[in-house]
Amino acid sequence: MLDRRSALASAKPYTSSVLQIGEAHGFSLLQVAGLAKAISPITGKLPVKVGLAVTSEGRTLMRTGPNQFWIIGPEVDDIETKLPEIAIITPLSHSRTRIVIEGEPARNVLAKGVPLDFHHSAFKSGTFAMTGLHHTPVLVHCVGENRFEIYALRTFAVSVYEWLTDAALEFAR
After folding, report:
1. Which of 35, 69, 93 is the last residue of a domain?
2. For labelling, which of 5, 28, 30, 123 has a CA lying 20 to 30 Å from the CA of 75?
3. Given strand 128-133, what is the order of strands in its sheet?
4. In the chain, count of helices (H) and strands (E)?
5. Where among 43, 67, 93 does a domain terminate?
6. How many CB atoms are located within 10 Å of the residue 148 CB?
7. Domain extent for 146
């Protein structure tokens, strides 16, 4: 079996006294299309609307469309084997890079290039948006007060990462 190689293998983590940017390894990502009432007995409770994420049995479940979900789990996950009879499954793990930006200025950095309202009252923990960052499609997930995970297409991961680290330069202390 081929080893998974990071698209950011040559990138250096960005660290300052107030902000960190790096890659999060060790995850699986499935896109699942099917009826929630058929899928939920296997996955656990699913989000009720697009833009919300819930955690269930060690996985993050995101509703990305009316009958479409992202399931983010551990790197080795058997959930895919339980869904083929009731849903259409597309493995996305190898096509996405997960970039983490964390720290008090994270919202300001993201607001420089992402057309979303990053105010604490508008983009809360547990919400996400499929959007663009500097003309590149990404999914931005708020996982904590000042922590975000950005899922970028592998082919654009270096560009997204470099944009983020450049946008963060004013916070280097």
Report:
1. 93
2. 123
3. 14-15, 19-23, 96-103, 147-153, 136-144, 128-133
4. 3, 11
5. 93
6. 24
7. 14-25+94-171
